[in-house]
Amino acid sequence: MVCMGNICRSPTAEVVLRAKAQARGIELVVDSAGTENYHIGDPPDARSIHHARLRGYDLTPLRARQISDRDFAAFDVILAADAANLREITRRCPVEHRAKLALFLGTEPLPDPYYGEAADFEKVLDLVEKRVDLLLASWWS
Q1: In the CATH scheme, what is the code of domain 2-134?
Q2: Which pLDDT tens digit goes with each residue over 110-141?
């Protein structure tokens, strides 16, 4: 999962996907990154940590990183939070790996809660949980 800073949406999606896959006995290598470099090494946003914890997810071990060239070869699927991040990873991605790129929600952006309220972080969790369930069902039907 890729968002801008790798402190809200993408770490949330990473942890939810990992947890839901493990609960189904599915082994996946899951990671997240940002398109920008201004939060490298930082933990996820405290509000993301708090709201995820309320649902049983632990974001505290994660640290922000920027997407790297090796990610395009290393991962089978790379999902962007929104169109701006999809454009940026498409720009950076070698042509032979572009088929791996898509929007996380399929056709809609995953809203950025960073400048929002508690309800915005809850909405992101709702959308991520629902989409992860759909992705896992489609990948392992």
Answers
A1: 3.40.50.2300
A2: 999 999 999 999 999 999 999 999 999 999 87
